[in-house]
User: Fold this.
Amino acid sequence: MADAGLFIGWGAPVYGREAKGLEVFNESLQYYGRLQQDAVIEGFETVILEPHGGDVAGFILIRGSEEKLAQLRVDDEFVRLSTRASLIVESLGVVGAALGDGLEGAITTYQQAVSDLT
Assistant:
């Protein structure tokens, strides 16, 4: 079971770059599919949000081990796709996440920080 994740969120497309945005989006989904097939990641889920006036238009949640996801973040292809995406959508963000068995460690770290500050 995955203990970590990568949340890749994005906002609205850059005006005039919508078609290129779809191209990079599809390229990214193919890449994540290959990563899953090669057991680099355990899986991923793609979410498109309905229009709501907020900053996030959609996201992909990639699931895997903390170690493999740390390596993925510096993988040349991952960095290339993230850089391309950042040029065609607003507010691209890649954020680490605790999932499954990783939640216990994240909660413990939070509890320790709260104790240190009280």
Q: What stands out?
A: The beta strands are 4-10, 43-48, 58-64, 93-98. The longest strand covers residues 4-10. The two ends are 34 Å apart (CA to CA). The chain has four helices and four strands.
